[in-house]
Amino acid sequence: MKSQKQGKLIVFSAPSGSGKTTIVRYLLAQKELNLDFSISVTSREKRGAEIDGKDYYFISSDDFKIRIENKDFVEWEEVYHNNFYGTLKSEIERVWQNGKDVIFDIDVVGGLRIKKKFQKETLAVFVQPPSIKEMEKRLRNRKTDSEEKIIERVKKAKKELKFAKKFDVTLINDDLSKAKNEAYTLIENFIKK
């Protein structure tokens, strides 16, 4: 996949409830970083006030499978049973063609796949919650998931934490302001390279 202007890729991955989405939104608001969000495709249902084409591209599982067959994805994963997530090649191209660097809010496996495909262009950041207990508390406070979904996410998080060492940087989010500042500095330094 070549582009006229190949920019940088900044991957933020973490278990649910780690604060990665809040950090990514903060970084996107810092206009001087010149970032644009890679909108992932998912087959899961919308949660809360999510907007199609802004938070995710929401499609059916069948449509997702067709796009897999068509090799439309840079990476994809069946994160939960019949809940697919993926990054379209066209989405990265869209951002690069606009002269910006791409920032991802993506699951751990997907983040590592992007890093593997674009090693030199990618900074992979793992956002780690201070503890599983704190992460579970954050999930409950969001009030967007059922009890069984929270239990499933906590179980998955325990596995995901083992991947942290495969990322370029682990950012511990025990203080949100501090984590935002550290993320800003990481991105600013990476973009300047």
The mean pLDDT is 91
Determine the CATH superfamily: P-loop containing nucleotide triphosphate hydrolases
Counted beta strands: 9
Give the class from helix and strand content and strand pairing: alpha/beta
CATH class categorisation: Alpha Beta
CATH second-level architecture: 3-Layer(aba) Sandwich
Shape: globular
Number of helices: 7
Keywords:
9 strands; five-stranded parallel beta sheet; four-stranded mixed beta sheet; alpha/beta; 193 residues; Rossmann fold
Describe it:
By secondary structure, the chain is an alpha/beta fold. It has a single domain, classed as Rossmann fold. 41% of the residues lie in helices and 23% in strands. A hairpin with a 2-residue loop joins strand 5 (73-80) and strand 6. Helix 5 (132-142) runs antiparallel to helix 6. The longest helix has 17 residues, at 176-192. It is globular and about 45 Å long. The two termini are 22 Å apart. The model has no long low-confidence stretch (mean pLDDT 91).
Layout of helices and strands:
Blueprint lengths: L8 E5 L6 H10 L5 E3 L2 E3 L13 E3 L2 H9 L3 E8 L2 E6 H9 L3 E6 L1 H10 L4 E7 L3 H11 L4 H14 L8 E4 L3 H17 L1
Parallel strand pairs: 1-7, 1-8, 2-7, 3-4, 8-9
Antiparallel strand pairs: 3-6, 5-6
